[in-house]
Amino acid sequence: MKYIKFLSLISLFFVGIISSVFAADLKVGFIYVNPVGENTGWDYQHDLGRKAVEEAYGDKVETSYVEAVPEGADAERVMTQMALSGHDMIFATSFGFMDPVMNVASKFPNVKFEHATGYKRSDNVATYSARFYEGRSIIGHIAGRMTNTDTIGYIASYPIPEVIRGINSAYLAAKAVNPNIKFKVVWVFTWFDPAKEADAASTLIDQGADMIMQHTDSTAAMTIAEERGVFAFGQASDMKKFGPRAQLTSIIDDWAPYYVERVGKALNGTWKSEDTWDGLAPGMAAISEFSKEIPEKIRKEAQNLHDAIASGTIHSFTGPINKQDGSAWLSTGETADDGTLLGMNFYVEGIEGDIPQ
Amino acid sequence: MDFASIDPTTIIYNLMIAATPILYAALGELLVEKAGVLNLGVEGMMIIGAICGFAISVETGSSYIGFIAAACGGAMLSVIFAVMTQYFLANQVASGLALTLFGLGLAALLGHSYTGQVPPQISKLDLPILSTIPVFGKMFFHHDFFVYFSLMLVLFVWYFLTKTRLGLVVQAVGENHDSAHAIGYSVTTIRFFSILFGGALAGLGGGYLSLIRVPQWTEGMTAGAGWIALAIVVFSSWRPWRLILGAYIFGGITILQLNLQAIGVNIDIALLSMTPYAITIVALVLMSVNKSKKSLGAPGSLGKSFIKVS
C-alpha cells in the first residue's frame, strides 16, 4: 500500500512539473454565485469580462470558472481547489464571498485575489465595485421627464447602502426635472426570485406607477412591464429581449476593461492590492442604447447628463440636499464624500416610507 | 399613507393568480394523501413541470401543449417515487425528500439553455356576460383558462372522492390499507395511479409558474411553493373546498404585503411571510383540540408502507 501511495505521489509530482512547463503565463480563475445563464444577469456580465481577458491576452492567459458556488464554506473549498491547481489570480464576484476570500488568501500569499463589492483587503486581496448610482441618475432623469402619473415604482432587494444609494440617486434626478414626482418602493428581500419580482411589478403598476425601476437581478419585472404596457429600466444587462417596447434603457455592468487591466498588471508584475470604485467614466457602469420611445429631446438631455457625470462636472449627489427627516446633509454646491455614500443608510428628503430595519 | 390607492379588485385579481400554482400542487397532494401516501417531493415535481412546460411551449409555440408537457413531466418524475415506495417499500418521507432534491437538480440541468427565453403568451379568457359585471367581472372572470381549470379540478376531485365508487375505494385504501386489501382492492395499483395524478397536478402548478405567472424560466424558480402546497393540505384538513381558502389566503398575504409596502406602510415582512404557516399551526391545534382525532381528517394509513402478507 505504501508503495502505491509513493508511486502515485511521484507521478503527481511529475504531472505537476509537466503541466507547469506547458501552462500559460498566468492562470486566472473566476467564481460566480449563480449559473452564468445565457443572456442577462450579474454573473453573465462577469463572464463577459472573463472572455474579454481571454481575447486580450490569447495564449498568455488561461482562464477557468466555477458557477453556482454557494457563499460560505463551499466558496472556500472551490477557491482553495483553484489555488492548489495552479491559479495565479482569482476573481470572486459576489459580496458574500468576502470572508472565504480572506481566509483562502491568507493561506496562499502568492495568489492574487480580486473581490467584487467587498470592503476587506489585504496584501493579496484587492476590491472593486462600480458606481451604479451614476447610472441611476440618468434613468431617474428619463423617468421624471416621461412619467404621466408622476409615480415611479422601485423594486428594491435588501436595505443595504448600495441599494439605498440607488434609490436616492434616481429620486434626486427625477425630482430635479419633475417636482411632483413620487417614488413607491417595494422591498422584496431577495436578489433573485422571479415570482416575487413579478408580483412586485404588478402591484406597483396597479398602484399607478408607469415607470418601473429594479435593483434585483431577474428579468421578470421587465416581462410584466411589457405585458402591462408601462415602461421599465433594465438592471445589470440589456433586457431588451424581455421588454422590446417597455425597456427605455438599462444600467449595464461592464467589468471587461477592469479585468483586462488587472490581469495585464498581474502579467507585468505591477499588480498590487487596491480599492477601485469606478463609474460611468471608464464605463464600469454603463447605459445601454436609449429606446426610440424616449422623445428626441429627452434622449439628448440624458446623453448630456451622462457626459457631464462621466467628465466629473456633475455629481449625482450635489447639495442642497436634506435627509428624509428634514435635517441638513449637503449644503449648496457641496458633493457627497465616498465614505457617506458607501455607508448610506437614510433616504433623502421627499421620499416617503421607511427603510426596513 | 394612502389606503385609497389599494384597489381591492386588483388585489383579488392578483391573489388568484398568485395562488393558482399552489392550488394545483396542493390538490394533487391531497388526493395522494387521501390514498394514504405522503409525497414530500411536491417541490421537485413542480419545478420539473415548470421546465418541461416552458421548454415544450418555447419549442412548439403553444402554451397549451406546454401545459400538457408540464403535467407529463411532473407525472414522470413521480413514477420514480411511486416505484420506490410502492414496489420497493422505501420510506416515504426519505423518498419524497430525495425526489425534491433530484427534481431541483434535474430541472436546472434541463433548463440550462432555456434561461432568458420568452414563452408564447397566453390570452385571457373573458367569460362572456360574467366578465362584464362591474367589479366582480374584473376580479373573478377576467383570468386565463388555467385559473378556471384549477377551480374546476377542485370540483372534480371533490366529486370523485365523495361521489364515485372509485373515489371511495381510494379513500378506503388511505384509511386502512389492510382492510381494503382484504376485501380485494389492489392497494399498490390504486396508490400508484394516485401518485401519478399528484405528480401531474404538481407539474401543472409548476407550468403555471413558468408560463403565466412569471413568465420565464429560471433555476430554482418555485422557491418553496411546493412546501406551501404541503402545508395547505394540512390546513384544509384534507377537504378539497378548504384548499381554495388555504391557497387564496397564502396568495392574498403575498399580494397584500406588497401593496401595503407600496403605499408606505412600515411592516415587518418576515412576520407577514410567517403568518400562513402560523395559521396552519393554529388551525391544526384548533382541529385537534376539538373532539377526537377524527376531526383532523388525516387518512388513517397516511405515510405507512403497505406490505402484502398473502
Folded structure, characterized:
The complex is a heterodimer of chains A (357) and B (310). Chain A is an alpha/beta fold. Chain A has two domains: 107 residues, Rossmann fold (3-Layer(aba) Sandwich), CATH 3.40.50.2300; 179 residues, Response regulator (Rossmann fold, 3-Layer(aba) Sandwich). Chain A is built from eleven helices and 14 strands. The longest helix of chain A is centred in the N-terminal third of the chain and has 21 residues. Chain A is globular. With 310 residues, chain B is mostly helical. Chain B has one domain: ABC transporter involved in vitamin B12 uptake, BtuC (Orthogonal Bundle). In chain B, helix 10 crosses helix 11. The mean pLDDT of chain B is 88. At the A-B interface, strand 7, helix 7 and helix 8 of A face helix 1 and helix 11 of B.
Comma- or semicolon-separated keywords:
heterodimer, A: 357 residues, alpha/beta, Rossmann fold, 2 domains, 6-stranded parallel β-sheet, 11 helices, globular, B: 310 residues, mainly alpha, ABC transporter involved in vitamin B12 uptake, BtuC, 12 helices
CATH topology of chain B: ABC transporter involved in vitamin B12 uptake, BtuC
Tally of distinct domains of chain A: 2
> Helical region count of chain B?
12
Low-confidence stretches of chain A: 17-21
Rg result of chain B: 20 Å
What is the count of β-strands of chain B? 0
Q: How many domains is the backbone of chain B divided into?
A: 1
- Count of separate DSSP helical elements of chain A: 11
Question: What's this model, at a glance?
Answer:
The complex is a heterodimer of chains A (357) and B (310). Chain A is built from 11 helices and 14 strands.
What topology emerges from the helices and strands here?
The complex is a heterodimer of chains A (357) and B (310).
Chain A: H1 2-22, E1 26-31, H2 42-57, E2 61-66, H3 73-84, E3 89-92, H4 98-107, E4 112-116, E5 125-130, H5 132-146, E6 151-156, H6 161-177, E7 182-187, H7 194-206, E8 211-214, H8 220-228, E9 231-236, E10 247-253, H9 256-268, E11 275-278, E12 285-287, H10 296-311, E13 321-322, E14 328-330, H11 338-342
Parallel strand pairs in A: 1-2, 1-3, 3-4, 4-5, 5-11, 6-7, 6-8, 8-9, 9-10
Antiparallel strand pairs in A: 10-12, 13-14
Chain B: H1 8-34, H2 42-60, H3 63-87, H4 92-110, H5 136-140, H6 145-163, H7 165-175, H8 177-182, H9 187-213, H10 225-235, H11 240-262, H12 269-289
Helix pairs in contact in B: 1-6, 1-9, 1-10, 1-11, 2-3, 2-4, 2-9, 2-10, 3-4, 3-9, 6-7, 6-11, 10-11, 10-12, 11-12
